[in-house]
């Protein structure tokens, strides 16, 4: 059964990747183009000022991958690989939880897991370290910013697991609804502590267009929300069929 669920999880992730690619092309990529244009205009202005002291301006560096390729086949390939990996991991976690930790049906459990994953992996980390388009962020701090972002994701996932265990511990004593509130409170409390503990990063240029930055960040969250919703609904439907067939064979 685990193998069947794994295959369907990867399929759900790939399907989600196609939808995410379309969403990104329509909503996110135009903001990236605007950010690149902003960066190019700054570079051109810097070169024009420096050109007075130079006999001959240096040739621009060749473009390794064209912009059309980046937002076309490159974007689709990257999202397909990511979607397949995420969908596979999602299905394995589902296989562990279903029937052991949760008594929910396949569709409900899958959708609930997708919502939890979006909150823990995308939404909460974005509150501390929101997505940034090109021209935002210094090259010298790329490694540091990457490490802190993934640390925020890891700690958010751990906090979610701890909160679920706390809620389960209080389920029999306080009731399901109160246990859910306790779990949510535990998660929020841990996340507040983590967000205060991790360093703040603000490298947005003062003259960067606020509208472009806002739309890019909303689009980034939209991409993640689309991915998880499609995986949650799509995998839930396929898992329900697999589990029904298995039950019929018994």
UniProtKB/TrEMBL annotation:
InterPro entries: CbtA_put (IPR012666). Keywords: Membrane, Transmembrane, Transmembrane helix. Pfam families: CbtA (PF09490). The chain crosses the membrane at residues 5-24, 73-97, 109-127, 147-164, 176-198, 218-239. This is Cobalt transporter.
């Amino acid at each position: 059964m685990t193998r069947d669920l794994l295959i369907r999880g990867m399929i759900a992730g790939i399907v989600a990747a196609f939808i995410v690619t379309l969403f990104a092309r329509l909503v996110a990529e135009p903001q990236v183009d605007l950010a690149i244009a902003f960066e190019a205009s700054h570079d051109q202005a810097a070169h024009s000022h420096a050109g007075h002291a130079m006999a001959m301006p240096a040739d621009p560096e060749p473009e390794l991958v064209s912009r059309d390729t980046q937002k076309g086949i490159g974007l689709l390939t990257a999202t397909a690989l990511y979607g397949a990996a995420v969908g596979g991991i999602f299905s394995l976690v589902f296989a562990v939880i279903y029937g052991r930790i949760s008594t929910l049906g396949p569709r409900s459990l899958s959708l609930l897991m997708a919502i939890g994953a979006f909150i823990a992996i995308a939404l909460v980390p974005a509150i501390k370290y929101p997505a940034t388009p090109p021209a935002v962020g210094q090259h010298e701090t790329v490694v540091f910013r990457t490490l802190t972002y993934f640390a925020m994701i890891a700690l958010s996932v751990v906090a979610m697991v701890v909160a679920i265990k706390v809620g389960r511990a209080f389920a029999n004593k306080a009731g399901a609804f109160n246990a859910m509130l306790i779990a949510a409170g535990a998660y929020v409390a841990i996340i507040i502590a983590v967000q205060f503990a991790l360093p703040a990063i603000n490298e947005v240029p003062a003259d960067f267009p606020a509208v472009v930055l806002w739309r890019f960040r909303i689009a980034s969250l939209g991409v993640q929300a689309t991915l998880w919703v499609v995986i949650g609904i799509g995998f839930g439907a396929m898992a329900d069929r697999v589990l029904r067939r298995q039950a019929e064979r018994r």
